Amino acid sequence: MAKTDTIPSPRLKDEYKKSYQKELVKELGLNNIHEAPRLEKIVVSSGVGRNRDDKRFQEIVSNTLTKITGQKPVGRIAKKSIAGFKIRAGMGAPIGHSVTLRGARMYEFLDRLVNVAMPRIRDFHGAGAKGFDRSGNYSLGITEQSIFPELGFEDTAILHGLQVTFVIDNKNSTHSRALLEKFGMPFEKKG
Predict the structure, then answer these.
(1) CB 182 within 8 Å of CB 121
(2) Are the C-beta atoms of residues 103 and 40 closer than 8 Å to each other?
(3) Please, which residues have CB within 8 angstroms of residue 151's CB and are 6 or more apart in sequence?
(4) For residue 47, which of 41, 96, 131, 162 is within the disulfide window of CB 3.0 to 4.6 Å?
(5) Does the pLDDT value for residue 17 go beyond 80?
(6) Measuring CA to CA, how many Å separate 32 from each of 23, 29, 40, 183?
(7) What pTM was computed for the model?
């Protein structure tokens, strides 16, 4: 007899379905549960900057994103030529790497980011509240990858930053912030 292992649903996804969605409808004064803001995807990216010709640095960035997200990153090629940065459109070496997370991996990454990685940031006073765009999506910059426990000493020997973008289906940034606060995102206190 073959044993079938069922993969448990992510904790934050279950919490969203059970309680967060209903709470958001009440708190935001929405008409029904389908108007509640929901997380569509998380994009984790890292630019390579001046090190675009350094294959070792490219490999470190790629390996970091793979270990943090559990998914292989895609190399991003320049779309525009920028003379000041010595970048030509379509040049061979990637100018950055990115991973798009959806479904279970998205919720697992969010859970680890908020509950494990962010508390490890030194002198952390909360995530900046100015990271919302007009559509209500939120971008968070992380200055060094060493806050993630998945990475060993070898992976953090050369430091680089990360950009985490939360793409949220909603009406405005107030609704997005309410959703992220439900998931445990520690925003900085005003005043």
Answers:
(1) no
(2) no
(3) 64, 67, 68, 145
(4) 96
(5) yes
(6) 11, 9, 19, 20
(7) 0.83
